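If your schedule permits, I should be very grateful for your opinion on a structural question. I have a record of one protein: its chain in single-letter code and its fold written as discrete structure tokens. Would you kindly read the sequence against the tokens and tell me how you understand this chain to fold? Thank you for your consideration; the sequence and its tokens are set out here.


***
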Amino acid sequence: MKKLFLFAVAVILMSNGAKALYYDFTALTPEGVELAYIIMDDGVSVEVCDPGTGSVNVDTLIIPSTVTDGDGNTYTVKAIAKNAFFMCYLKYVEIPETVETIKKDSFYNVSWIEKLVIGKGLKKIESHVFDWGKYSLKVYYRGTVDQWASIIFDDNPLKLYHYLYIEDTLLTNLVFADTTTKVSDNAFSGCWSIESVVFGDNLTDIGNNAFKNCTAIPSLSFGPAVESIGDSAFYGCKGVVKEMEFKGKIPPKFGSNVFQQVSSTMPVKVPCGTYDSYKAALPKTFTNIVEDTIPMLTVGAAVITMGSVEITEEPSCENLSATIEAVPAYGYTFAQWNDGNTTNPRTVSLYQDTVFTAYFDVNTYVVTVLSNNEQYGTVEGSGTYKYLDTVYLKAIPDTSNGCYFDTWDNGWLSNPLTVVVKSDTVITAIFGTKNGIEGAEMDNVEVLVKGRTIVVRNCEGEQVDIMDVNGRVLYTGRMQQGGYAVPSGGLYLVRVNNHRVQRVIVL
């Protein structure tokens, strides 16, 4: 769209030295304030300005986001023109979010301005925008701190006015989102209200003068991704910043005078294993560089007789993690760690000195007591017991039928038998019966069964035959001490000196 020039020349020099701007049309704001507009090259946007130098003298100026000219054409207000409100009298100024640029000297020599509201669409503030005015001015921004930090600041009104409000809250605790990667040059320069700063983990660049003369920040902690800190970024914070911490394994690139007038004796914390690299990168004046140490890892068992704990992989500066393993002693099982975790082995990340204690449970075992012949006798003591429990096993022979307890199958003779439980156990009581041989010349001859062994007692020098149920001779001769072990359970026949056969059952 072709511009309509209302003046013969673009710039007219006024008697007081100020410059009057040309403009394409004027229009009244909803509040009745006349403003002038310069159509921009795209033909759909305009810059706003004062229609005559110093002619806008109102308490409240609300710049509209759109404006319509006399021909009915509507434009978006995208910029505040250079020298736009030179010498105007204003107390309250509100800039809409459509405005992307505030140009040089736009509010130069504007007296008594007390409150400036800036929309979140602003992308750039040129130099000398506010070079004079009421020093109690407060700046209100209708975006987030991360959006403010992305604005291009050739100059920053906070240099003069010092207090920034995000929406309607005074900025005291500055917390950057993890999505923020850069703080622009001059972004918070001169802001006195900031009392703490938290840089996001993905922040890489801090611009020139970004926090210059911020006088209330007690400490600084730079995230692991910071690569560069610009010239004079924290210039003039002397006596305020009491400590600094760097979390990056590689020191950032420092511009000139980054920490000029900042205390050089305060502790500067750096990551484990990086002392030499930070010593070389930081300004030579810093004398108190403190290297972080590997957190101490302490491990052990709650009851040392039940097990132990081993560190199978030690932490290092490069990898602050460790692998620990609980090793139960025999008879015990790992239960859990002191924090309730049941993983074993376990890999843990160390952020501070840490103690891990392993708890163990006592194993249980089954003790089974059997009788070699339930017709000869019964047993007591079977059950489930804990490791190292003491158990009493008892064999009870049927004496009414001439039966007796002979031994346990492991050779122990005690009855009752005391057993300390250390594993699943099966033990059998061996019972015998006093069987005489009919027709034998020696009335005291006895046939006993011990497990699968047939023993004939009191027949020294006599012929003994042992046969299976089919009459096949398995053994013949003088009975040896210890008896004869039959190949399997079943019915067997025993004969002494050709006397009557005695039947014997072997289980």
In short: The first strand starts at residue 11 and ends at 13. Residues 1-18, 436-442 have pLDDT under 50 and may be disordered. The radius of gyration is 50 Å. Residues 176 and 199 are 5 Å apart (CA to CA).
